[in-house]
């Protein structure tokens, strides 16, 4: 496994961010609502996370779950979120938008990229819903995105490995291709070696019972506190993960099935 590869970890809490940095993450993707694939986090979360970590924090700009075809009001929210996150310490942004026929929305993306300057911007996994990924990649290069997050337009990065390899070859260092989706300690090395990627994106979670002592019998079902990225250490030489037992999982929602 390449010693210089960068692992980006998506987090949705201060605790997660701190643990990810301690574990060896090189960059954070900060969002809320991971079960919806990640939405724009609160400004308060960004401010506090920046107090606790030193690695770059890229902020998700996504006003809702579901598809990536946005209304005028939603675009207005995205512009305002970009303005706020940029002025309060975000190191980069993560966003994307498509047209109704599954193409990159060049007009909207251009507008959002201008608003984001001078921050680097990642095009998120909206890429996995485009009708023609080869053409879409050229569009993103021409627009000026710094990187693309993708599972290779498949259910996981491992399943999409052939396309990931193809678009990395196509990119020719003009844009970073970052595999993500279903990456685990068992398949990470295979994905890196099979694609030639220099960056990977992952999320991880464990669950623990709530610390609440009082529980209303009629309303308490199985309330658990989810702790994402509860790693004690990451070891890039040999096995990428320690023996703590925490496993990486892709958390991207199936938008059409769950929100369409």
UniProtKB/TrEMBL annotation:
Gene Ontology CC terms, in alphabetical order: cytoplasm; nucleus
Pfam families reported in the protein's UniProt record: CutC
Keywords carried by this UniProt record: Copper, Cytoplasm, Metal-binding, Nucleus
Protein name: Copper homeostasis protein cutC homolog
Keyword Cell membrane attached: no
GO molecular function, one term: copper ion binding
Quaternary structure (record): Homotetramer.
Coiled coil: none
Intracellular or extracellular location(s): Cytoplasm; Nucleus
Organism in which the protein naturally occurs: Cynoglossus semilaevis (Tongue sole)
InterPro entries recorded: CutC-like, CutC-like_dom_sf
HAMAP family in the cross-refs: CutC
Function of the protein: May play a role in copper homeostasis. Can bind one Cu(1+) per subunit.
Family under the similarity heading: Belongs to the CutC family.
């Amino acid at each position: 496994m390449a010693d210089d590869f960068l692992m980006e970890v998506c987090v949705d809490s201060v605790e997660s961010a701190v643990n990810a940095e301690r574990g060896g993450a090189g960059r954070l993707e900060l969002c809320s609502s991971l079960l919806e694939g990640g939405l724009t986090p609160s400004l308060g979360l960004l401010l506090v996370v920046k107090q606790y970590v030193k690695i770059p924090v890229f902020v998700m700009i996504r006003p809702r779950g579901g598809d990536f075809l946005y209304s005028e009001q939603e675009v207005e929210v995205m512009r305002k979120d970009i303005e706020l996150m940029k002025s309060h310490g975000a190191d980069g942004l993560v966003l994307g938008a498509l047209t109704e026929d599954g193409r990159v929305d060049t007009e909207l993306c251009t507008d959002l990229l201008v608003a984001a300057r001078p921050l680097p911007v990642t095009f998120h996994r909206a890429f996995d819903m485009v009708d023609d990924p080869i053409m879409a990649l050229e569009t993103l290069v021409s627009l000026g995105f710094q990187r693309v997050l993708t599972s290779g337009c498949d259910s996981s990065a491992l399943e999409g490995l052939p396309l990931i390899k193809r678009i990395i070859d196509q990119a020719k260092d003009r844009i970073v291709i970052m595999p993500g989706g279903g990456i685990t300690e068992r398949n990470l090395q295979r994905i890196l070696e099979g694609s030639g990627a220099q960056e990977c994106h992952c999320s991880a979670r464990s669950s623990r019972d709530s610390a609440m002592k009082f529980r209303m019998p009629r309303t308490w079902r199985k309330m658990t506190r989810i702790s994402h990225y509860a790693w004690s250490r990451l070891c890039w030489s040999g096995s990428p993960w320690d023996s703590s037992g925490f496993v990486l999982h892709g958390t991207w929602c199936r938008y059409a099935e769950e929100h369409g």
